[in-house]
């Protein structure tokens, strides 16, 4: 089955540590996205990538980094610079790069900072 | 600036009752409009989307939405709610921004269904 996988489902981090969240898709989509979800705030865009080896900052990129070395993979690193990283993180992909293209979401990773 | 509002944070309905979830947007042109559903601890699934043409859009799971340009609204409806519809619902707008094009999500409406 085609889809998006995210791992791990739950992640615990100590303050001062960097952690990397995995996102893989086998939909052959060009565009991939990372969102952060906090209660009552909807989804906020962290980073997006429209093509391999290229990515752009979203609305809340500070304290995060990404890479796009392969079409199917778009890992997100939450660095120690992120002041409040506890949140639910969602990865998505879309076939095209336009705002009208449907985004398909993974099941998410819940990150908790201890 | 583009924005999406969902006036109802939480709604409770009885199983079999009708449902309407409200969505209002702020955007200068005709936007791309979406409704997504999220089950607890899961990702989002697209229910339906509107680009142009017929303002009444049919989606999956028996949902429909109506685009009203004069009211800048895109409300989601279902004639008879099932217990499995309990979830979080997000309205979203695809818009061209000053720096980049993006999809803007509303804050969500949580739906509870009473058996």
Characteristics:
heterodimer, A: 114 residues, mainly beta, seven-stranded mixed sheet, four-stranded antiparallel sheet, 49% strand, globular, B: 115 residues, 55% strand
Beta content of chain A: over 45%
Oligomer: heterodimer
Main sheet properties of chain A = 7 strands, mixed
| Count of alpha/pi helices of chain B | 0
Helix content of chain A: under 10%
Outline of chain A = globular
Uncertain runs of chain A are none
Mean pLDDT of chain A: 93
Number of strands of chain A: 11
Most extensive interface, chain pair and sizes: A-B, 26 and 25 residues
Largest sheet composition of chain B: 6 strands, mixed
Mean pLDDT of chain B: 91
The secondary-structure element order of chain B is EEEEEEEEEEEE
Shape field of chain B: globular
Structural class of chain B: mainly beta
Task: State the low-pLDDT regions of chain B, or none.
Answer: none
Radius of gyration of chain A: 13 Å
How many DSSP-defined strands of chain B? 12
What is the C-alpha radius of gyration of chain B, as a whole number of Å?
14 Å
How would you describe this structure to a colleague?
- The complex is a heterodimer of chains A (114) and B (115).
- In chain A, 0% of the residues lie in helices and 49% in strands.
- Chain A has strands spanning 4-7, 10-13, 19-25, 31-37, 43-51, 54-57, 64-66, 76-78, 87-94, 104-105, 109-113.
- In chain A, strands 2, 4, 5, 6, 9, 10 and 11 form a 7-stranded mixed sheet that branches.
- In chain A, a hairpin with a 5-residue loop joins strand 4 (31-37) and strand 5 (43-51).
- In chain A, 37% of the residues are buried.
- By secondary structure, chain B is mostly beta strands.
- In chain B, the strands form 3 sheets. In chain B, strands 2, 5, 6, 10, 11 and 12 form a 6-stranded mixed sheet that branches. A 4-stranded antiparallel sheet of chain B has the order 3-9-8-7, with no helix packed on it.
- The relative contact order of chain B is 0.33.
- The model of chain B has no long low-confidence stretch (mean pLDDT 91).
- The interface between A and B is medium-sized, with 26 and 25 residues.
């Amino acid at each position: 089955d085609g889809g998006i996988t995210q791992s791990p489902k739950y992640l615990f981090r100590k303050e001062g540590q960097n952690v990397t969240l995995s996102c893989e898709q086998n939909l052959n989509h060009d565009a991939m996205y990372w969102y952060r979800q906090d209660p009552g705030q909807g989804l906020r865009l962290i980073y997006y990538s429209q093509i391999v080896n290229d990515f752009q900052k979203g609305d809340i990129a500070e304290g995060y980094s990404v890479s796009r070395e392969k079409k199917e993979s778009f890992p997100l690193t939450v660095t120690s610079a992120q002041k409040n990283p506890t949140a639910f993180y969602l990865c998505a992909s879309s076939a095209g790069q336009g705002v009208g293209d449907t985004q398909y979401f993974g099941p998410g990773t819940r990150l908790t900072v201890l | 600036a583009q924005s999406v509002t969902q006036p109802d944070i939480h709604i409770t309905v009885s199983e079999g009752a009708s449902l309407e979830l409200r969505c209002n947007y702020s955007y200068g042109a005709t936007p791309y409009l979406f409704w997504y559903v999220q089950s607890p601890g899961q990702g989002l699934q697209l229910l339906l989307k509107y680009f142009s043409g017929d303002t009444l859009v049919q989606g999956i799971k028996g949902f429909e939405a109506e685009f009203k340009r004069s009211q800048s609204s895109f409300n989601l409806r279902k004639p008879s709610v099932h217990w499995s519809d309990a979830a979080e619902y997000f309205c979203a707008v695809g818009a061209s921004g000053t720096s980049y094009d993006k999809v803007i999500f509303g804050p969500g409406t949580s739906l509870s269904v009473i058996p």
